[in-house]
Amino acid sequence: MNKYFALSLVMLFYSCADKQSQENDHKKEVQGLHSSATSLIILGTIQDAGSPHIACKKECCRELFINPDKDRQVVSLGLVDNKHGKKYLFEATPDISTQMKSLVRDDIQNTNELVDGIFLTHAHMGHYTGLMYLGKEATDAKEIPVFAMPIMKKFLETNGPWSQLVSNNNIALTQLENEEPVSLTPGIQVTPFIVPHRDEYSETVGYTIKGPNKTALFIPDIDKWSKWNKNIIEEIKKVDYAFLDATFYSGTELNNRDISQIPHPFIIESLDTFNELDATERNKIIFIHFNHTNPILDLTSTEAKHVLDKGFKIGRIYDVYEL
Asked: Do 232 and 273 touch, CB atoms closer than 8 A?
C-alpha cells in the first residue's frame, strides 16, 4: 500500500474518531441539560477578555492562538425550565452566539433560537457586550427581555450603540431592584443583590437563583469578600450551589499589571476564608471567572489539585446542576 495513502487512511480514522468523540460529548451535554425539569448549566468560565488573551505573549496563550480551545468561553450561566419551556442567560458575553445555541440546540420542545431573557450583572466588557449580537447587524431580535439594575439600565438607554438596541426594540429592558425577587416561572425566582466592584458605568450585582428544589448563588465579580456588607460564609450556607469569582489564583501570575487596580478575591484568600466550612459546605462552591493566567485552568496543575483536594469544585463548561 502506498505510504501516503496509508497515512491518509490513518488521518481519516482519527478525524472520524475525534468527530465521534465530540458527538458523544455533545449527546452527554444535551442529555444532561434536558434530563431535568429545571437546571443550571455552566456556559463559560473565563474572565472578560477570554483565553487566549489579546496581545498575550505568555505560555498560557501561545498554543491557544494556534489551536483555540472551544471550551474557553467567557463566564456565563444558562437557566433551563423544561417544564414551562423557558430558557435564560446570565450575562451577555462576547461568546453569546455559542452560549445561546447551547441552550436551544436539539430541544424539540422549543423552536425559538433565542432565549426568553438575559440577566446582566454589570457594565464590564465580558458581561454585557454580547448584546450587540441582538442588533440589526446580526439577528435583529424582537424585544428580548433584558434584566438590569437601575444604573445599568440607564447606561444602556443613554449610550450608543446600546441605546439603538432599545430604540429599535431589539431588547426590552426590565429594571431590577436590590434584594427584590423576580418570578420567571412558577418554579423559578431570581433575586439580585449589590456587591462591591469597580463600578465605572453601573452598579454590580450577584444573583440568587431559586428553583423548585434547590438554590444557587452566582457572583462572577466582586472586589474582596471582606468589602461586602454580607458574610459570604453565611450566604453559602443558605444555598445548594455557589458559583464564585476566582479570577486569580494568587495574583502573582499577573506580573505586567498593577493587581491593586483589578481587585478580586484571590483563590488562596478564598480558601483561607472558607477554611471553616465543613466538607458538605465546601462541596457547594464552584469556582468560575478565571483569568487566562490562572493556573487552575489546567486541571493537572498543582494549584488545581490543591483546590480539589480541599473539597471545592472548579467550574467546567457544560456542567449541569439540577435546581
From this structure: yes
